[in-house]
Structure formats: C-alpha cells, structure tokens
Amino acid sequence: MKLEIDQQRLNSEIEALAVFSDAEPPAVTRVVFTPTDLKARAWVISRCEEAGLTVRQDTIGNIFARWSGADPAAPAVGTGSHIDAIPNAGKYDGAVGVLGGLEAIRALQRSGFRPKNSIELLVFATEEPTRFGIGCLGSRLLSGTLSAEAAAKLRDRDGESVDEVRKKAALSGNLQDVKLAGGHYKAFVELHIEQGPLLERARTSLGIVKSIAAPASLRISIEGAGGHAGGVLMPDRKDALCAAAELILAIENAARLSGAVDTVATVGVCDVFPGAVNSIPSRVGLTLDIRDTDLVRRDGVMQTIERGSQSISSKRHVSIQSELLNADAPADCAPEVRGALADSCRKHGFAFLEMVSRAYHDSLFVSRIAPTGMLFIPCRNGYSHRPDEYAAPEDIARGALVLAESLAKLCSSSQ
Ligand code: HGY
Ligand code: MN
Ligand code: MN
Question: Is the peptide bond before 335 cis (omega within 30 degrees of 0)?
C-alpha cells in the first residue's frame, strides 16, 4: 500500500481553518459555540463531506465523520481532536489532529485501501476549558466520565448554561444520548503537537505517547473586606488581593517542592473586585490548574495547597473557598496502538521518542472506553497556547502518514 500525504493541501487547510478566529493574526481565538467557532465547524464538516464521509453530530456537538468499512457492525477505529482554541492561541493545537486525521483518511482512500472496520474522524466539542471551566466536556460525556446531569449544571462566564448555549448552536436532544455504547471503538489514535520542547531538543520528529498526565482544576474565591484606599490603615485591612498573592506563591512553592519536576501548577485567571484604583479589593476569584504524571503526588500537592490556604485565611481574616472542577486520573496508552505507531515509524526509518503527554487531551477520556494512543509532532521551541505556536508542514505531513498507516493496521483491511 503506497500512501501519499498531500502536504500542500493539508497545510493550506490548516491555514484556512486559522482564518476562523476572533483575534488578530497570527493569534487564533475560537471559543466553542461562538459564531466564529460555528463557522469553523461548518467548514470542517464540508471538508469531511467532500471526502465522502458520513457526518453526524451528537447533542453536545461532537462531530463524527465516518468512512464506512466493509463490516459496518464491527467496532470503528477512531481518530481526531478538537478545533476550539483558547484566547490568543495558535493555529495548530487540535487542528493538526482533525485535519491531519482527515488527510490520513483521504490518503488511504487514494491508495485504494478498503477498511473492514469503519474509520471515524472526530471533532470533539469544547476540549478547551475556556467557556465552561472544564476541559474535554465532549469527550467526558462521550466516555461517560461526566454525567449529563453534572454537565447541565455548568455555566459560562455570562451565566449561560450548557443547554442554553448548545440550543443556540442548533444542537437539540438530551445530553444523556452522548455516551457511547461500550465497544464502539476498537481503537483510537490522536495526532497532536507536543506542546512542549522535548522532541525539538532531541531532534526527533515523532513522539509516541506512553501516558497522559492527570489534570485537576479548581475555582478559588477569596472574600476579604473592601474599603477606601486612603482611609483604611494597613493594620485594619482584610485585603483579598494580598491574600490571593500569598496563596499564588504558596501554590507555586508547593508544585516546585513536590519532589518531582512533573508537578505543574498554574493560576491562569485572577478576577479582582471591585477593580478600582482607590478601593481595597474585597473579593478575588482565582482558577488553579494542577497536573502531574503521578496521581498520588498530585493529590498530595493539592492537600498541601489546601493547608496553606487555611493558614492564610486565618492569618489574614479572609475567607477562602475552593470548588473542585475536575480531578482526573492519568491514562496509560494502549500497547497495540503504540505498537502500530512504532511499526509505521520503523518501516519508514523515522526516529521516535516514547514520552509522556503533559497536556491533557480528549484521548485521556477516550482511553476510558477504548484502547487509545497519541502521536506527537514537534512544535517550535515547544510553544503552544500562544500566537507563535508553529509546526512545520513536513512534520505535520509525516505525522499524518504514520497516523494513516496505523489506522490501516488497526482496522484490518477488507481485501
Ligand atoms: O490544557 C491542556 O492541556 C489542553 O491543551 N487543553
Ligand atoms: Mn489546548
Ligand atoms: Mn489540544
């Protein structure tokens, strides 16, 4: 089977998708279910239909583009990723896995390959936590990791519920219907940029993921006492922002002193109320994103942070409440998927690195219901979630080629 990836077309499609953005180029902002995102989703669906795939959407907006196999009743082999993008992001995070997966399918079609098992390209809904505060909402529901009831309680920053938002996106039906029946997928493979510097440092163009780190996130609210910036003397203050500052440094310290470099903690959002130059902050909202490859170590650091929070609260006479948004276990990638990826790399003499994914992905949740693997390509300087995120066209094409061969291997041919 001679497979050819159309590198030029794949790269131009990545550029075309990046145009659907609410930010000035080269930045990409594409928050799920915004008008821009809906246009991008429609554009991707057209590309899938052009390839002769049968497209459906589920009630949360996961898109399934299916190349029916000779045995339609057999479990499918899935691939895909996401197209939503956080504010001020780049054009490759997620897009490489969706458009690279589509080109892998087209290359298989052009080669005359006929799959026995159907191959399904997925565009997961709301992989990024930007809108609803929790990442991978679509794959959590699809895998049954999050209940429809819990999802229905989520709201965006404007207070709109998931149901209100998805109805505006013309997605009707019950969230209960998103969960896939067991055995729906024989295997699942996601192509993604590394979002770290290791492949580039190792001068290696492919990474086969061994495991995906365990993410957790919390919303922290700090309540002090407001007041006049001139009239309230320092000993009388209960400044919520100063308490937040001390807590943020305690969080950084807890991660740095966990005993392993694999523990990472980030306070990415800090909302200050009332946010006036001459008014003492009475309320602060923080978000905490904390991850580790080791679940026990991650949870230990979370307990250290909780103790630190309590001591700051009593010392500064402010209240500090934490709301756990998610705390997920890590995932091990399936040997049969890693083996298919490695066989393809060896066949072409492509060097590869076996590595951990420090970013989370929809694959983390698909791994709860199917043998799952991930294939990484380098991104320049390891940059991601920023406008200068960049993946070279030849690296993207090489990833799509290995993906295509692995998909073919995982879904036995019908010849
Ligand atoms: O945050 C992550 O790891 C992913 O890029 N959403
Ligand atoms: Mn991302
Ligand atoms: Mn991603």
Answer: no
